[in-house]
Amino acid sequence: MRITSGKYRGLPIKSPPGDRLRPTQDLVREALFDILRDKISECAFLDLCTGTGAVGLEAISRGASDVFLVEKNRSNSKFIQANIKMLKGANPKVIYGDAALIVKSFQNRKKFDVIFADPPYEKYGENPLLVKILNNIGEYDVLNDDGMIIFEQASREKIVESEFFSVLKEKKYGKAKLVFYEKKT
User: Fold this and answer.
1) Structural contact between residues 148 and 116, judged by C-beta atoms closer than 8 angstroms
2) I need a labelling partner for 134 at 20 to 30 A (CA). Which of 92, 141, 178, 183 fits?
3) The three-state (H, E, C) secondary structure of 67-136, written as one string
4) Each residue of 121-143: b (16+ CB within 10 Å) or e?
């Protein structure tokens, strides 16, 4: 895996061996950022369930100015830190903890232009962590009015519905899909 575009294009992204993590694949990241092209420059970007940090670091490479990486599993920290170190001059904030609770902690402190979440896939039905994350983003008002939320899910997972957000689009990439949300008007 590598950073696909921008200032740090081509830099490798370190990941643990085996299948303990399922980092967002290069093709999916490239498609994601092609869709987000006009929103990334100078944006506040929140990468939830960051794993290796690949998506947040790609955002930095493409011009995001304020990036937060949130990961529950501290054993991923050595990979996150090693990947950050390769981006000379980049200074994303790394927070370890439950993604849904971290979202809640931003209330009245921080709003984001783009929020991305890629938790472990569910085998069937709806992903309960994505439900909590989406509800907390809406309830605690941490997305700017013209902001966007993107969930990476297994293509078989049910799309999460919300009283706060509407689905803008869904794009499938093999076993993965990206679901884009915006605030309801």
Assistant:
1) no
2) 92
3) EEEEECCHHHHHHHHHHHHHCCCCCCEEEECCHHHHHHHCCCCCCEEEEEECCCCCCCCCCHHHHHHHHH
4) ebeeeebebbebbbbbbbeeebb
CATH for 26-183 is 3.40.50.150
pTM of the model: 0.93
Backbone angles phi, psi at 85, to 5 degrees: -60, -30
Q: Where are the domains of the chain?
A: 26-183
User: Is residue 68 within 8 Å of residue 45, measured between CB atoms?
Assistant: yes
- Please identify which residue in the block is written with the tokens 């009015």: 145
Count the residues in the chain.
Answer: 185
In angstroms, how far apart are the furthest CA atoms of the chain? 44
User: Tens of pLDDT along the chain (185 residues)?
Assistant: 889 999 999 999 988 775 655 667 778 889 999 999 999 999 999 999 999 999 999 999 999 999 999 999 888 888 899 999 998 888 999 999 999 999 999 999 999 999 999 987 666 567 788 999 999 999 999 999 999 999 999 888 889 999 999 999 999 998 889 999 999 98
